[in-house]
Amino acid sequence: MNDRSVSGNLSVSVCMGRQPVFDVKRHLWGYELFCVSDHKNSAMAGLVEKENVAVNVASSTYINIQQMMDQGKKIMVDFTEKGLLGELPYALPPVFAAIRITEDLWRMKTLAESMNQLKADGYLIVVDDFTADPECEAFYKMADILCMDIASLDNETLHRLTGEALEYEGQLLARSITRHEEVKTYGEMGFTLFHGTFFKTPEMLTVRKISSSEISRFTLLKIMEEKDPNITKLAKTIQADVSISFRLLSYLNSAAFGFSQPIQSIQHAINLVGWSQIKKWLRVVILSDMGRSSDTPELLVLSAQRGKFLEKVAEDHNFWGFSPDSLFMLGTFSLLDTILGIPMEKIVEHLPVENKLKKALCQDPNNEYLPLLKLAQSLEETRWEEAESLIQNLNLDHEKVKAALQAAINWANEIASVRI
User: Fold this and answer.
1) Ordered domains of the chain (ranges, CATH)
2) Which residues of 176-194 are buried (b: 16+ CB within 10 A; e: fewer)?
3) Does the predicted TM-score (pTM) go above 0.85?
4) What gap in Å lies between CA 288 and CA 284, rounded to an integer?
């Protein structure tokens, strides 16, 4: 890393969120990172802290950074003029950092020297919202990646901009991709990187039956959800599954927990940590065994984040009368149709959840749980204005929702730090 000094304000509590970026073969290229703060009395749209992303990554407060480096994944980070002039990008290792700025910042004429130096020092340079402006010609020639927001462009403009962008050496990144087939469509146009919600959308190529191994996993879920399970018998059942027991013990013996003595058995883990917490992790790892696509790891992290967020919201707003554990299951199971490639209506037949939760999972528009699930989705996709409206309509406490989001992101990052 360059030895330049880095300035930053870490007095505000922050957590790191991530959104995946895929290549044309649907392999994970890297992540867009965003930093969520706990500023009081601020709108959700004011939560993103561009300046704190680099500093928190550099100070190792983002626990997944080593895992990303080991896997060779890139991270893409937005910067403001202040952050660039303050040399904050140098808090990030150049081997995998992509520095993204807008054309408006480039037109201010104050950043050319800084950007040229970053390029020379090995950082990837990313143009946000490419417009083919002649005034930004030098910026485009320097860039490694040119981004376009597909949703904001009509077909004629998109084809014109794509043609002009292909004249430069940088890769093309398509944002706001919502359907799987769009990856192929825009890939044929010349785009090689893709960002959006498409990876969370079920891809029903064929209708298949649930396999015997998947049924056995659903059976284990049912045993886990019994009101008064026999913990000794349950521990033996889990211990007999080598794959699950190994990953559970690896997770509990990781730095995320920091136990002074290694946990040697499932029974020991349940006694020490508590069945309620163990059960939450097991739900996620069981889903990982059932995943069939290359997107599964990202979907599992997102499922964990949704589950923890909804659980915290229920805990902090008990006037709703919703069970926190039930809402944790709602979030955790909400992407099962995408993970398995099976319609949710078929999956819920095997899930150990109440009928109201099954209807929410099937997106019943009259279901009382569905608005909370939509709130979780809007936050993970950084659709802050929509989230703000939902918070008001649901009569939720703004600060408690922000705290729940932070807790959910941090917990999901812990899950991701141990390869499940």
Assistant:
1) 14-200 (3.20.20.450), 212-417 (1.10.3210.10)
2) bbeebebbeebbeeebbbb
3) no
4) 6
pLDDT per residue over 342-394, tens digit each? 889 988 988 888 899 999 999 999 999 999 999 999 999 888 889 999 999 99
Cα-trace Rg, the chain: 22
Residue 122 half-sphere exposure toward CB, CA atoms < 13 A: 10
Helix, coil or strand: residue 264: coil
DSSP string over 233-259: HHHHHHHH-HHHHHHHHHHHTSTTT--
What is the spatial distance between Cα 19 and Cα 34, in angstroms, rounded to a whole number?
Answer: 8
Q: Residues 408, 306: contact at Cβ < 8 Å?
A: yes
d(CA 345, CA 300): 20
Nearest CA among 350, 349, 346, 348 for reference residue 360: 348
Burial of 46 (0-12, 13-18, 19+ CB in 10 A): exposed
Nearest residue to 233 via CA among 276, 270, 284? 270
Helix (H, G, I), strand (E, B) or coil at 87: coil
Written as one string, the DSSP assignment of 317-366 is -GGG---HHHHHHHHHHTTHHHHHTS-HHHHGGG--S-HHHHHHHTT-TT
Provide the terminal-to-terminal Cα distance of the chain, rounded to the nearest Å: 30
The one-character DSSP state at 48 is B
Rounded Cα distance, 301 and 304, in Å: 5
